[in-house]
Amino acid sequence: MLNNPTRRTALLAGAAALAPMPAPAQAPRPAGRAARPAAPPATPGQSPLGPVETIARNALLMDFDTGAVLLDKGADQSIPPASMSKLMTMYVVFDQIRQGRLQLDQTLPVSEAAWRMGGSRMFLEPNSRVSVEDLARGVIIQSGNDACVVLAEAISGTERAFADLMNTMAPTIGLRDSVFRNSTGWPDPEHRMTPRDLATLARRLITDFPDHYRFYSERSFRWNNITQPNRNPLLERMRGADGLKTGRTDEAGYCLTASVLRDGRRLILVVAGLGSERARAEESERLMEWGFQAFDNVVLFRAADTIEDVPVHMGVRASVPLVGGRDVVVTLPRGWRDQLQVRLRYDTPVPAPVLRGQELARMEVSGAGLAPLSLPLYAGADVDQLGLLSRIPVLARGLLGR
Fold it and tell me: In this structure, what DSSP letter does residue 38 have?
């Protein structure tokens, strides 16, 4: 038994110990841009800094690494995703490639149904065959509805069956409020996503398919003697922009799910319900720049850092180091790290034997602008129990109260 075990709470000096990540530089604004027209009335979304106005009907700005939400305006509202739902179409396609069921150089037949699709198109020819790689570019760069249908039919037989596959896969990758009725985002009253699901999907695409994500940064694609530019306006406007997908229907308005990687830090933005292409471009750029300038990523500790040495009872060593086992980074409003409170909670002394990787403590992090965190801490080394003869003096001291 432990000799008078106690519960310890340690308050760490957060400001001095935490290391800020390098502050990103602001991208230069291109010269010669026309003056922006008067914007429609803005309404506020919520952020750790308080209300932030945006003309987007819905907006979600998220840090890629930490998952911290920097701006939330109707992020859980069910909206028509328009062509942004093609992100899910391509997630399924890339997963098929990962499983070996499709290859990039494999050619697929263009059906009459695919050829007859309206809206944005790749301009495929009926009864032709097109490689999966070209179809992927047709979906991602040209937003081709015809290319979506070709891929859907090749994978599932029919577009409706492909939509069923999308619905089956969605919850397995963390989409909680998405319903798909087609592969294209064609208007359907039941075809819905939330901005939060779109941001989650963007993060999964980037994480799960880094080799294929490169398609999203390509500026244009030529097919059937027709060159179409990538519709993502941030690729031209912002340093570090490398994806993802626009959308537009009468109901959805002008929409964008975007990603920008700058100085090692990535932000994901979803905006919807904007009134024009120009408004989509300018408001997306403004919100992204605000996110980079207003927030820092702060390192709480690195994977191998010793957070504290914890006493061990009846061990061959007097203490064991506490480690986090992984890098832990939090996103905070710039300059707010001094307001962090970091506490350790653990029982002391820890009884031997102790195994490396055994959870021994919790780190609790709180402060203005940060959702409370509770992180596990682990033993950084094995500590064997003392042998019988070595334990006797320790037990005697305990009995004598020394």
Answer: P
Q: Per residue in 345-386, pLDDT tens?
A: 988 889 999 999 999 999 998 877 677 788 899 999 999 987
Whether the full predicted model's pTM is greater than 0.90, yes or no, is no
Pull the structure tokens for residue 57.
């009907």
Type of residue found at 86:
K
Is the pLDDT assigned to residue 338 strictly greater than 90?
A: no
Q: Are 263 and 24 in contact (CB under 8 A)?
A: yes
Q: Which of 47, 143, 183, 284 is catalytic?
A: 143
SS3 content of the chain, % helix, strand, coil (to 5): 30, 35, 40
Amino acid at 328: V
Q: Is 86 a catalytic residue?
A: yes
CA 252 to chain centre: 23
Q: Coil, strand or helix: which one is 259?
A: strand
Q: How far apart are CA 269 and CA 233, in angstroms?
A: 13
Q: Which of 47, 73, 85, 86 is catalytic?
A: 86
Is residue 178 annotated as part of the catalytic site, yes or no?
A: no
Instruction: Read off the pLDDT of residues 34-90 as tens digits, 9 standing for 90 and up.
Output: 444 444 578 899 999 999 999 999 999 999 999 999 999 999 999 999 999 999 999
Annotated catalytic residue within 47, 83, 111, 259: 83
Annotated catalytic, 131?
no
Q: What is the DSSP letter of 170?
A: G
Give the dihedral of Cα atoms 192, 198, 204, 205; nearest 10 deg. Answer: 90
Helices in 49-172 by DSSP H: which ranges? 86-98, 112-115, 132-140, 145-156, 159-169
